[in-house]
Amino acid sequence: MFHNRMPRYDVLSEDAMATLDRGWRRLLTEVGIEFMSDRALDLFRAAGQRVEDNTVFLDPDFVLEQVAKAPREFDIQARNPDNTVHIGGNAMAFGAVYGPPFVREGEVRRDATMNDFRNFTKLAQGFGVLDSAGGVICEPNDTPLDSRHLDMTYALMTLTDKIYMGNVVSGGNAADTIAMSEILLGGRDSIEQTPACISLINCNSPLRWDDRMLDAQFEYSAAGQPVVLTPFLLMGAMSPVTIPAALVQQIAEALSGITLSQLIRPGAPVVFGSFLSNIDMQSGSPTFGTPESAMGLLCTGQIARHFGLPFRTGGGLTSSQVSDAQAGYEALMTLLPTFLAGANWVMHSAGWLEGGLVAGYEKFIVDAQILEMLQHEFTPLEITEESLAFGAHEEVGHGGHFLGAMHTMERFRTCFYRPFLNSSDNYERWMRGGAVDTTGRASALWRKRLEEYEQPPLDDGIRAELEDYVNRRRTELGD
User: pLDDT at position 422, please?
Assistant: First the structure.
């Protein structure tokens, strides 16, 4: 996995941080947070917090006491130990797109299928820059709703040997993920000692945690599995239009969810989540890759470090309908500040299109290329006497060239990063090759990668036990 050793880009002054601090404290004490779960309300009451109907008014000092119990860093084990990831510190882990009901394959936009889900899982296995295929890479609409989470989790566990995300549609689905993780990774003690999956718990912003997400949170936190507590903020719709107001709301929502995880199980691993962008004030549509979202992302990194928490944000986000120039520059507008902020868990790193409604095959390849280039760009430069190449100057002298110099000949294969998607051909050669643009090259590449895919080995006994579990639960669920 990638470790970002570059300096962080902090944009908030001490005065600004102090103002934000007063803001989230006021929201928690005067407005409160809704928790649509009796179990959650009971925990808050027992901890001495004021509860009125479903609204919890939280003491900020109590919240900070609970937040301090969460680990600053933790590991998530993969069935291939080489793919185990570290969350926190300077580590950055990347997962593919999450949640789209549609797929784009070239010019065709259609409902996503289970075959698409498996294809994206295989692609994620093949790209070293991705630490995880993610969770719901796309929503397989050709499988039964009640049991499709079993098929998705089974695919993630068998088609990759990387970490995966847990299903959060319900508490029952979360329990299934945990049970299958126990089969895959050696039992309950093993996954409680080192977590096996990471799961997204979204806040129904503004200021409400819904029952289904909370049911999943209870399952995962009780089992010691990390959850990403994420306010879902589109400024102008789910939060006020100003970035500072959105940041204050984000802090209040995220910290309240983190507090609940600590009440469920003190020391439960959590991630400070952020999904912050804005809407188009003319159309009302969500927009991504905006300057405002980039600034919010940079601020979020500084805020999470202030609280001593690992954080999630970023990804290759775009509003574009196809894998075009807009898709590329909007993705970079989000991924670049993701690296500058040093995000620890990065969802939607490959494949996001059309505001998250679509998982795109070509976009998956473009994003993987951007991600690989950024990882090279954010690798610190090593400056040594050897790298100054004084001998090359002595060899070439004045007015010569370095193409044939010994220093160049010894290093020409590895001295520069070579993109796998770009074209640097001159015009004539590019025309002779069919004048294929980036989208065309990406289309050919994802198909080639699928042809080259090799399934990672898995013990036959474990595979059979997973299959038995899936089949039994499918029958129990009526599918």
Answer: 96
C-alpha distances out from residue 225 to 165, 190, 247, 291, Å = 10, 11, 26, 34
Q: What is the pLDDT of residue 23?
A: 98
3-state secondary structure 280-342: CCCCCCEECCCHHHHHHHHHHHHHHHHHCCCEECCCCCCCCCCCCHHHHHHHHHHHHHHHHHC
Q: The tokens of 419 are what?
A: 């993109």
Which residues neighbour 328 within 8 Å (Cβ) at sequence distance 6 or greater?
Answer: 366, 370, 438
Domains in the chain and their CATH numbers?
Answer: 2-8+67-377 (3.20.20.480)
Per-residue CA distances from 71 to 3, 62, 268 (Å):
19, 17, 7
Cβ proximity of 198 and 96 under 8 Å = no
Do 4 and 92 contact (CB within 8 A), yes or no? yes
Strand 286-287 to 311-312 pairing = unpaired
Mean pLDDT of successive 10-residue segments in the chain (479 residues)? 96 98 98 98 98 98 98 98 98 98 98 98 98 98 97 98 97 98 98 98 98 98 98 96 98 98 98 97 95 97 98 96 98 98 98 98 98 97 94 95 95 94 96 97 98 98 98 94
List of E strands, 107-259: 108-111, 164-165, 197-203, 208-209, 227-235
pLDDT at 314: 85
pLDDT of residue 479: 82
In three-state secondary structure terms, 348 is coil
The model's pTM is 0.96
Cα gap 68→162, rounded to integer Å = 29
> Exposure string (b/e) for 188-199, b if CB count within 10 Å is 16 or more?
eeebbeebbbbb
Which token pair is 174? Answer: 């979360």
146: exposed, middle or buried (Cβ count in 10 Å: 0-12, 13-18, 19+): middle
With contact defined as beta carbons under 8 Å apart, do 1 and 91 qualify?
Answer: yes
